[in-house]
């Protein structure tokens, strides 16, 4: 193989390798980017998410597609079944999230949102997606500082309600997770 052939072969290989990368470099239109709603945990405010929102913005996410909610009363009740001044129930928290999702969809014209939550915010997300009609309006959700069992319950419940898996399948997911938690606890 001559030197010229080697150069052509190397250039062809580089061109083939960088072609797919060019597609990665193009960003979707800001209107095509899913709005994100950030849900703080117990006692927290939207201010918790400022740094995260700045990071999204610095990576090209449009500011008008990033929303953090502020509950009027961010603390959970001591007993969820009994009203308590200045505190919200899990049902009220999920209802507030549902209303905020509707506001974001109306403001942006999007058909779905992504939800990001931590701690008690994860509970609100689970309740909204699994029981509050959110499954049809949420493209995906991410939570931190939240029980894995709650995640499995939410996903199994949504999959069951959407006909993706049967009730038996949803129960099997919960059972397997319970087995894994028991094994972990016995070590």
Give a description of the structure.
- Helices cover 51% and strands 11% of the residues.
- By secondary structure, it is of the alpha/beta class.
- The protein has a domain at 37-146: Alpha/Beta hydrolase fold, catalytic domain (Rossmann fold), CATH 3.40.50.1820.
- Strands 2-1-3-4 form a 4-stranded parallel beta sheet, with helices on both faces.
- Helix 3 crosses helix 4, helix 4 runs parallel beside helix 5 (148-161) and helix 5 packs antiparallel against helix 6 (167-185).
Mean pLDDT: 76
Shape designation: elongated
Largest sheet: 4 strands, parallel
Q: Write the H/E string, N to C.
A: HEHEHEHEHH
The name of the CATH architecture of the domain at 37-146 is: 3-Layer(aba) Sandwich
Number of strands: 4
Strand content: 5-15%
Topology of this protein?
Blueprint: H1 3-25, E1 36-39, H2 50-58, E2 66-68, H3 90-108, E3 113-118, H4 120-131, E4 138-144, H5 148-161, H6 167-185
Helix pairs in contact: 3-4, 4-5, 5-6
Which features characterize this protein?
four-stranded parallel sheet, 4 strands, Rossmann fold, alpha/beta, 187 residues
Quick recap:
The protein is of the alpha/beta class and 187 residues long.
